Task: structure prediction
Amino acid sequence: MSRSWRIEFDGALYHILSRGNEQQKIFADDQDRNLFLELIGEMSARFDIIESPEYLLRLSCYIHRNPLRAKMVKRLADYRWSSYRVYAYGKKQPDWLKTDLIFSFFDGDHEKQILGYRKKVQFYSHEEKELWEDFRHGFFSEPLNL
Result:
């Protein structure tokens, strides 16, 4: 079965992922993973990626919880190949990762924003089913519930 059409337009938000057929591994080692992250950084600079605030916070929570859903880790902070530790614990971020928009949803200084994001992701498991239906049908009808 072929992949559905990719809709492209100025200002669109794209979720970058890589997955092997039948859940096969696509990276041989950490060197491969780091190369992939470098390529994402180059593409981000080359295409001037723009984020959309309408559902970005919920999307970020959904994406960061993927390793839990896949039973790859028991704690999100244990998954090294995600930006979750940057957002939820203030770890060093790569130059290409833009966190300002996500943190702008939370009041206070940077430490309070980090804590707010971590709590949002933890609470997010209650909202997940609703958002998955929206993704499946390509429809977003409601604003963010912060």
